[in-house]
Amino acid sequence: MNGIGKAAWSGFKAIENGLLGKRRDDNYKELVQNMLKSYEALGINKIIYDQHYQPSTFKVGDKVWLQTFYHPDNRNLMPPMFGPFTILKQISPVNYEIDKPQSNLGKTTMVIHSSKLRPYYPKEGFELKLTKVKYPL
Known about the structure:
Layout: H1 3-20, H2 28-52, E1 63-67, E2 81-90, E3 95-98, E4 110-113, E5 117-119
Antiparallel strand pairs: 1-2, 1-5, 2-3, 3-4
Helix pairs in contact: 1-2
InterPro entries: SH3_Tf2-1
Organism: Cordylochernes scorpioides
Pfam families: SH3_Tf2-1 (PF24626)
């Protein structure tokens, strides 16, 4: 048994002794093996997640879009993003305080998770170049 398996086993034994006492099912060993497999799968999923995880790149002072909350009762033509808002403070590696007022609560800022923020790119310097295309007749 590897380190993950031993930790899972000791955790299971503590739960079993604390909650179940001496009562056990007939397929007790099979249940324990299934639990150990699930703990190993969780460890593998974490490794895969960590390989693709990209930390947020927002800094204080950056302009961001705020993703709207989707609800089936909302109108279909609502904008998917609101903003731009300015990041005022980084609360944690994934939470940011932005300058979005909340009139119903009387607050001038809002704490948002980084998964709901998108970088804002200003229109200055954005130019659409049109080219003439000749179509063969």
